[in-house]
Amino acid sequence: MRFKWVALFFVLIISSSFVSDKPAYQLFDEEGNKTNYKTLLQEVKKADIILFGELHNNPINHWLQYELTKDIHKEVNDQLVLGAEMFEADNQYALNEYLSGNFDYKTLKNEIKLWPNNKTDYQPLVDFALKHQLKFIATNIPRRYANMVYKNGFEALDSISVEGKKSFAPLPISYDAELPGYKKMLEMAHGHGGENLPKAQAIKDATMAHFILKNWQKGQTFIHFNGTYHSNNFEGIAWYLKNKKANLKIITIGSVEQDSINTLTEENKGIANFIICTPESMTKTH
């Protein structure tokens, strides 16, 4: 009997050694080597513009966005500028009034278009800007105009009023249909939307780059929050930024989900300077 209990004890010890920790995320560098938050922070502090590519419903991405914003602010203070895809350019006036303390969140919610997960995922960033009196830039093209491009190409924007044209990148829009990201978008859509589908993506990328540059000055750090596809592989927003200012120091952060986060898969290597990898089983914010 004594031998039986001793044997059971050793079985439990051995089996417990195979139970690993459950890390919420793992950071990798561009080559797929494991790195850490401290290294990430040291590198992004050197950047003019940080493109933080997120998975929209990933809570770890949103938590890291807030933590990175807070930590960079400790270094650069009022030289920090925030901006996001999730806010459309024609809502900038109302957003500015909120940041000036003219009204509360309830009014803001009624005045501008907000994403379903705004209150939990993006409003903390806006309120950080409010608290520290930082600029927060609504960088995205109004969705009605992006939809026009999707239906009828860039030419559809020629008919927009002078006032309306202030809410997207100046025409004509530079566009490279051979960029891998845009080509892949066509492949994934299996022909739906035709050649205008990547053009609708491009007008968003061009507009976000336009408003980032319009609101950035040398010596400032601009953190921009966008879907990871808008900056993966140094294309999208990054491509438009570099086209306008080739000497900009841009750091991109990409986000992926994998079954295992111990090693970055080949397809996810190289998509950004830093890659946040979270488990596929991670809970979603919406």
What does this structure look like?
This protein is α/β, with parallel strands linked by helices and 286 residues long. The protein has a domain at 144-201. The chain is built from 10 helices and 8 strands. It has an 8-stranded mixed sheet, with helices on both faces. A hairpin with a 4-residue loop joins strand 1 and strand 2. It is globular.
Structure, briefly:
The chain is of the alpha/beta class. Helices cover 41% and strands 17% of the residues.
What are the SSEs and their pairings?
Blueprint: H1 2-16, E1 26-29, E2 34-35, H2 37-44, E3 49-54, H3 59-76, E4 80-88, H4 92-99, H5 105-111, H6 118-132, E5 135-140, H7 143-152, H8 180-189, H9 196-214, E6 221-227, H10 237-244, E7 250-258, E8 274-279
Parallel strand pairs: 3-6, 3-7, 4-5, 4-6, 7-8
Antiparallel strand pairs: 1-2, 1-8
Helix pairs in contact: 3-6, 7-9, 8-9, 9-10
Please tag this protein with its features.
286 residues, alpha/beta, eight-stranded mixed β-sheet, 8 strands, globular
Span between N and C termini?
Answer: 54 Å
Helix content: 40-55%
Order of helices and strands: HEEHEHEHHHEHHHEHEE
Q: Please outline the major beta sheet.
A: 8 strands, mixed
What integer value in Å does the Rg equal? 22 Å
Low-confidence stretches: 3-17
Number of helices: 10
Give the mean pLDDT. 93
